[in-house]
Amino acid sequence: MKAWAAVFPHANEHCCKPRAAGVTMMIDKCQGPKATADVLAMTGDYIDHWKLSFGTSALLDEDLLRDKIAAVCEHDILVYPGGTLMEFAVLKGVCRDFMRRARALGFNGVEVSDGTIYHSAAARRDAIQFALDLGLTVVAEVGKKDPRHQPSVEELADQALADFESGASWVIVEARESGKGVGVFGEDGSVHEQDVDIIATALNSHLDRLIWEAPLKNQQEYFILRFGADVSLGNIQPRDVLGLEALRAGLRFETMKPLVEKLEQHRR
């Protein structure tokens, strides 16, 4: 039971795990065993996806990585290596070996992306299907990491639809760790609302399974106010997980203010 449940029994009505919508994807750059345990103890109830960023998991000792993955899985969390590691495997011609090894290490998910490399549509479909055959949950990512080579939002939407049709359970809209100058964000981290509208319209029937990378608070606030508390958000730093959950629950100024204004209107 949560500490304030006796006073605020409905303070957070965000549905319990496993969640079909409103997921939080946390990005893990360098959490050691003790830090991992702390994050899980404090915020494990609010984390749905745990991404080991870029190729960092390739630099860890096997026993440490296995223990970390097992601890995360115990909290009903989908854990997967960053898509950059999968792209590195594609470059080396060992994509299938990479996926087999991911499964053997205990990962229950894998990210399929082409943020840095060129990956043909057929190869991308094959990668998704092979991962599914291994019993891995597929999280696809659309978009490029280089601000100079950004696809149009229409192309992002088309790729996302193709990935869903290929069997991906979730699709992430790329924004990197900075949330600036990539995807639907401007150089200052502001949201290009028209781009969001185009993607949301094209993916209307898949919105619950679309994860918007939104590392900055103003971006998280925008998506929650635009789509509601059950919007799925990613690239959340460990230190920001509780803050995001407070935004979802209306326990911060940015999302409490609309509730206050609504109550004031009813009183008039």
Describe the fold and architecture:
There is one protein chain. The protein is α/β, with parallel strands linked by helices and 268 residues long. Helices cover 43% and strands 13% of the residues. It has helices at 33-43, 62-73, 83-92, 95-105, 121-133, 153-166, 193-202, 217-227, 241-249, 253-267, and strands spanning 24-28, 49-52, 78-81, 109-112, 137-142, 170-173, 210-213, 232-236. Strands 3-2-1-8-7-6-5-4 form an 8-stranded parallel beta sheet.
Q: Main traits of this protein?
A:
alpha/beta; eight-stranded parallel β-sheet; TIM Barrel; about 270 residues; single chain
A few lines on this structure:
The chain is an alpha/beta fold and 268 residues long. Helix content is 43%, strand content 13%.
SSE string: EHEHEHHEHEHEHEHEHH
- Report the CATH topology name: TIM Barrel
The class by helix and strand makeup works out as alpha/beta
Report the span from N to C terminus. 37 Å
Mind sketching the topology for me?
Elements: E1 24-28, H1 33-43, E2 49-52, H2 62-73, E3 78-81, H3 83-92, H4 95-105, E4 109-112, H5 121-133, E5 137-142, H6 153-166, E6 170-173, H7 193-202, E7 210-213, H8 217-227, E8 232-236, H9 241-249, H10 253-267
Parallel strand pairs: 1-2, 1-8, 2-3, 4-5, 5-6, 6-7, 7-8
